[in-house]
Design a protein that fits this description.
The complex is a heterodimer of chains A (about 280) and B (about 260). By secondary structure, chain A is mainly alpha-helical. Chain A is built from twelve helices and no strands. The longest helix of chain A is centred in the middle third of the chain and has 30 residues. Chain B folds into two domains: about 160 residues, P-loop containing nucleotide triphosphate hydrolases (Rossmann fold, 3-Layer(aba) Sandwich); about 50 residues, no CATH class. Helix content of chain B is about 30%, strand content about 25%. In chain B, helix 4 packs parallel to helix 5. Chain B is globular, with a radius of gyration of 19 Å. The chains are: A mainly alpha (about 280), B alpha/beta (about 260).
């Protein structure tokens, strides 16, 4: 499978694309081609449902999950983090529905609690926080083929979710009362969407970096909203922006030695600024 | 859904399609929202529900829609005398959509009525179906407009078209006239009248606008936790109950 990819990459006119080496870069490119559409797609719903602050909070809680996993001595603390993020997102959905508090207050409460818990666990017995620094910035070049497969699997699941439930997700986000009256269980729509965001953020955090991961979930759709007139254009621009900026960011990071996550984010920010310039012409 | 023939709806429920609400009560926790509510709603009738804020209008709708548990009975009788579950079209209070929402009326409508995911190109057949439904409320021209760019009256027309698919026995509208300007209000009321005649369905709506009641409502229900007065618009508006509820009589407190 990977051999096939390596020979395909060899057709590209880059020095690192030549056969026989630089596999980390080839893996990273493939990972970007999987991660960026994943974020481009999810981004449309995150922005539509006004969940961008929530996904930010999830990033922080994901770090706590890793700290818990490490504490328990797991060799793959990521799975503990995924579990923690799922619990976090479900509790959040529940509290937001059941309480009369504003959404951002609930998120603030959850986020700060999770971060405090994470730092508490990480520094237990005089432990050092520096071992988690790598998570903050992320390193796409460290991605292994197995993990790319995992990411591709998640992309597949999200695609199936979109095919089966996009309409009900959209209606729940646009008009909960109407969705309710048409027999849609709005709570479960939110719970599933939040769980999907939780899994994607947690799994990709290691490679994208905790500090910038939320920008990948917000910027593609935020820019796309400025341009799109309907749902199809919304998805098209968001996906296209995410993939193009993803590849451009990876290339930039390779040639000038910056972190890939931050480079991608800066390209997305540029995309957003350009979209703002075009926004006014639409009515 | 076939269009039922209009029959003379006088009083009582015999031989006519009719929603019969009897001794209905709704409580949420310890709070009694509605008690002992009884009224009839005949096909072809427009009934306006009035009452102060918090009088239980929305709770009454939710009970009829089956979203709130209730005591007492809500029965629907078809014109052939058989009882069945009615199809209810519901137009919720119109929300303010985000001005930037990249969702067209077509997307919104298709997402509500069809399984085809609307982020994919929409098949011609689905597009035609949405157009057909929107034509019922003369909203077909709005199909490619973004929902964020619609006026209050336009949103109401789209939501009403949505509530008419599938064609219901009863159409319930929660404050359809709020956020609609005077021209839009007249258009909506004309359209309700047209819908009532074309599809012979019952229309139940809540409103705070008493000035136009006499022009369109066949019956007015004054609600404050229970039915205080039912009758023709002029009758209810002139009643002491109405004046008490809205503090129109000097020197008298709340009833």
């Amino acid at each position: 499978m990977m051999d096939w990819w390596y020979s395909l990459v060899a057709l590209l006119p880059f020095d690192w694309a030549q056969p026989g080496g630089m596999y980390f870069m080839k893996n990273a490119l493939l990972a970007i081609l999987v991660i960026s559409p994943l974020f481009g797609l999810l981004s449309t719903m995150v922005v539509q449902s006004r969940m961008s602050f929530f996904s930010d909070a999830l990033g922080h809680s994901a770090f706590t999950g890793i700290a818990i996993g490490t504490l328990c001595g797991l060799s793959e603390p990521m799975w503990a983090a995924v579990l923690f993020a799922l619990v976090f997102s479900f509790l959040f959905t529940l509290v937001r529905r059941r309480s009369s508090m504003a959404s951002d207050t609930v998120i603030g409460v959850f986020s700060s609690t999770a971060v405090a818990l994470g730092i508490f666990i990480a520094t237990l017995n005089g432990g050092s926080f520096t071992k988690f620094n790598a998570l903050l910035v992320g390193d796409i070049l460290s991605v292994e083929p197995v993990k790319i497969g995992l990411l591709a699997g998640i992309l597949g699941v999200i695609l199936v979710l979109w095919a089966c439930a996009y309409n009900t997700l959209l209606l729940s986000a646009l008009h909960p009362a109407l969705a309710n009256s048409r027999g849609i269980r709005v709570f479960w729509q939110e719970a599933v969407l939040n769980a999907a965001i939780a899994v994607v953020v947690t799994v990709s955090m290691t490679w994208v970096g905790l500090l910038v991961i939320n920008s990948l979930l917000v910027l593609p759709a935020a820019a796309s909203r400025n341009l799109a007139r309907n749902t199809r254009q919304y998805h098209l621009f968001s996906l296209l922006g995410a993939v193009v900026c993803g590849i451009a960011g990876l290339m930039t990071s390779y040639y000038i030695g910056s972190s890939a996550g931050s480079s991608i984010t800066l390209y997305l920010a540029a995309f957003f600024i350009v979209s703002l310039a075009f926004q006014k012409r639409r009515l | 859904m076939s269009v039922r023939k209009h029959q003379n709806c006088t009083s009582g429920c015999s031989g006519l399609c009719c929603l019969k609400v009897q001794n209905m009560g709704v409580s949420l926790g310890d709070t009694e929202l509605l008690r002992d509510v009884s009224f009839h709603l005949h096909c072809g009738e427009i009934v306006a529900l009035i009452g102060p804020n918090g009088a239980g209008k929305s709770s009454l709708f939710k009970a009829i829609l089956g979203q709130f548990p209730h005591t007492g009975a809500i029965d629907f009788q078809r014109s052939d005398g058989k009882k069945s579950r009615p199809v209810i079209g519901y137009v919720p209070q119109s929300p303010a959509f985000d001005r930037g929402d990249p969702v067209s009326v077509l997307d919104f409508f298709a997402a509500a009525v069809a399984d085809w995911p609307v982020f994919l190109p929409i098949p011609a057949k689905l597009r035609a179906r949405v157009r057909f439904c929107l034509e019922r409320t003369h909203a077909e021209g709005l199909m490619d407009k973004r929902i964020g760019a619609l006026s209050g009256g336009e949103i109401q027309r789209v939501l009403m078209a949505l509530a008419l698919d599938p064609l219901p026995h009863i159409l319930i509208l929660d404050e359809p006239l709020s956020g609609v300007d005077i021209d839009g209000e007249r258009q909506l009321l004309d359209m309700l009248d047209e819908i009532r005649q074309t599809y012979d369905l019952s229309i139940l709506l809540s409103t705070h606008d008493f000035a136009t009641l006499e022009h369109y409502a066949d019956k007015v229900i004054l609600l404050k936790h229970t039915v205080l007065k039912v009758g023709a618009p002029s009758e209810v508006l002139a009643s002491p109950e109405f004046q008490d509820v809205f503090h129109l009589r000097m020197g008298k407190g709340e009833a």
